């Protein structure tokens, strides 16, 4: 399992075989600060983005709602982290 700097204090990221549903559920944990994950919108956005790419319709909705509460710099960080995760897979 891979971890970015943002996840160093949180839960380990799933590997490249993760499904959209798995990524979505992990994004929910980060977006609410539950299940051992810190409240971290950047990580949640990244996970929702990856989940959406893997077919999760719910993740698209959550990503859009979350992005309305985030600074554009944080959204850019989340998108960069998603690209890095994809490149490592």
Q: Please give the radius of gyration in angstroms.
A: 11 Å
What is the average of the pLDDT values? 89
Order of helices and strands: HHHH
Helix tally equals 4
Helix content: 55-70%
Structural class, from secondary structure content?
mainly alpha
Our estimate of the beta-strand percent is under 5%
Low-confidence stretches: 1-8
Q: State the total count of DSSP E strands.
A: 0
Strand count, sense and closure of the main sheet? none
Span between termini: 10 Å
Shape: globular
Overview of this structure, please?
- The protein is mostly helical and 89 residues long.
- 61% of the residues lie in helices and 0% in strands.
- The chain has helices spanning 20-32, 41-53, 57-67, 72-88.
- The N and C termini lie close together (10 Å).
Summarize the structure.
The chain is mostly helical and 89 residues long. The protein is built from four helices and no strands. Helix 2 (41-53) runs antiparallel to helix 3 and helix 2 crosses helix 4 (72-88).
